[in-house]
Amino acid sequence: MDAEQIRRLEPLLADYLKRFDDCFARRDTRAHLPVYIRGQLSGLPRKSVEPIALAADVPVRTLQEFLTQSSWDEDRARSRVSEIVAQEHAHEESIGVIDETGWVKKGEHTPGVQRQYCGSVGKQENSIVTVHLGYAVGDFHCLLDGDLFLPEIWSNDRERCQRAGIPDEVVYRPKSDIALELYDRTRSQGMRFGWLTFDEWYGGKPQFLRALCTRGQKFVAEIPKGFMAWIRPPRVTNRPFHHKRRGSGRKTPRLVAGAARPQTVEQLAKSHPALAAQPWQAWRIKDTEKGPLVWRVKQVLVYIKDGRGLPEGPYHLLVCYHPFTDEIKYFLSNAPADTPVKDLLRVAFGRWHIERCFEDGKGEVGLDHWEGRRWLGLQRHLILTMVSYLFLAKTCQRLRGEKKSRVDCVPGQDSDGRDCAGLTTRLRSTRATVRESCEVHQLLPTTQRFCSQEPHASDDPQITPQRHQAHGPPSLRPKHELAL
Length: 484
Description:
With 484 residues, the protein is of the alpha+beta class.
């Protein structure tokens, strides 16, 4: 950003924050909002309450009370973020992204803190976990909602919860239930998502997928390789059967006797003719800082178990193979059967948006800088961080212009799924062209960013799903240090 663009930010920020005036009944309480937001958008190395207050020449205790004791409508502030996004960034192909993040917290009094794996330090550490719902259209992305994951050890100790100010109605909920609550709450505020996507921890839970289907929400979910499905659905019968006319009989409807059992998607990809004999198609997912991101893809319609164990579908199954790393990913989608593969891939590989939101949220606006012991303070910090991040995202989009994501098929590939010589040659040629362009324009090379490798803080400590690389545009760094 140049100096003129930085100077323009102050009135733009003032107009933006006026949209939240009705969230604060008292004028003196309302006056603390720009103090906190400007502190988060500033260049302070630490963006917790004390540094923000000292930089703004405001009593520290006053700003602490703004987060934990002052009367203001945090629910309305949260919904205002969704309203702004729905009014100004709505799109029929928008993507909602569900994911979680965590950060280290020392001691034992921070709400929800427990010893668990924390990706920011790469080891078991005292940390808290928050579940989030993000939103993406093209290269625009932001956070719409977030909530604390309260572990069972906390939920069962109500005295400890009372000391942290956690209401009695806030109890342990699986993270998939929290995600559904965030989705329902955001929908009730007027938001609509063309698609929803999430990683294999959520995708591996059929009850979570069924809940989205009952809500009429299209999704593309990464699923674990052990996910069970049929390519050819077994026959179902409604015929009653009583053994020697005794007992209550077998339940109906049911699978016929001797029906084929479902197989894991890994088994289907290796042995079922519908996939094993299918040639790979190479798709350029997007252009990254190191050149095009290309995956080889197979697609087939499958059926999964419903709540009664009967086949339900059809669903799209995508088997995606990376020719240079030998990584294989599996995706499941409830989109209509005639949905183009390129649309499914655009959503499937769209999780980098929320990874970038977490990276920029922690690095630019202090998402993980909160220091406190009160549940209400944490909830309000999450909301105010969303307010700050949305302004940052809108400003960056306005300065760089809108850019749509694109997925293209790479034609003329071999069909054995292993010999990628032609593809390798083309990619090397493309990268050489990029390097030559950089040399001509004297651009400094940039390192590729990677997303967090933290596993989910689930009930099963063995579940450590791999996370997407955050293949996307440069992070939000407008460097606005002047009046902010």
